[in-house]
Amino acid sequence: MRVAAVVVNYHAGAVLADCLQRLLACPELGELALVDNGSEPGETEALLARLADPRVRHLAQPDNPGFAVACNRGARMVHAPWIAFVNPDCLVEPDTFTRMSVHAGDEQLGVLGVQLVDAEGRPDPASARRDPLPRRALVTALGLERFGLEGVHLATGAGSLVECDAVSGALMLVRREAFVAVGGFDEGYFMHAEDLDLCRRVRELGFAVRCERGVRVLHIKGVSSRRRPYRVMLAKHRGTLRYFGKFDAPRLAWPWRVLIRLGAYFRLGAQLGLGILRGGR
């Protein structure tokens, strides 16, 4: 399997070097597109000079057009049949793509994710998800999944390779054919929910979305979002509502649509208020 990686950097700091070095150590990696979203001048040039790897292509953007836009631009810079979209705070192992490549021969496979874990090895439940239908989202938001109710997360003990509706965009391997067929990420998202959107559209074309839980990758969350936490909250809110408006709102009667949107704004207000009380910036 030949893989091209796309890494979008937004002030990721020291972890970016570790991320890139680990990716370049993977034997399947033939290309790497690093897209800088509004980084400071010279922020990554020294790192790229130190790496001095001809597989790396660098796109420095003067502003931050959003994660989806940057991913699409990075994807146009590479040509491999599989594109790995990797957050700069995801640290792969040299055999990560080797172990994922076991499934590459299945022509039905459109998107493949992995089991993301934190520094203590705890699995991230967002690694494999169901579509966030309103009732599922409510179950998850209220913490009712632990009582056996169906939320947005799949149970973690469901075997190695699992069929799912979506995988985390922190690390997702996408068949180029499927990515091109759906037109890439929806650039109407700034950040958050664009991975859910892409997986849903890929499935609508008949491709499968799966998560290989036997492959574990360390994900250090929040490296970039710590700079602008309130902007991240707002972007997540907008992304969630865009996803709802595209896929699920048309199937609901208008009172339910209004109630769900009001609930989303209430939740945003509560998050912002809690952030202020905790002293966030």
What are the defining features of this structure?
alpha/beta, Spore Coat Polysaccharide Biosynthesis Protein SpsA, Chain A, nine-stranded mixed β-sheet, two-stranded antiparallel sheet, 9 helices, globular
Description:
The chain is of the alpha/beta class. It has nine helices and eleven strands. The chain has helices spanning 15-24, 45-51, 67-75, 96-100, 134-141, 176-181, 194-204, 229-248, 254-277; strands at residues 3-9, 29-37, 56-61, 82-86, 90-91, 109-117, 128-129, 161-163, 166-167, 171-175, 208-219. It starts with a strand and ends with a helix. The mean pLDDT is 89.
Could you give the topology of this structure?
Elements: E1 3-9, H1 15-24, E2 29-37, H2 45-51, E3 56-61, H3 67-75, E4 82-86, E5 90-91, H4 96-100, E6 109-117, E7 128-129, H5 134-141, E8 161-163, E9 166-167, E10 171-175, H6 176-181, H7 194-204, E11 208-219, H8 229-248, H9 254-277
Parallel strand pairs: 1-2, 1-4, 2-3, 6-11
Antiparallel strand pairs: 4-10, 5-11, 6-10, 7-9, 8-11
Helix pairs in contact: 8-9
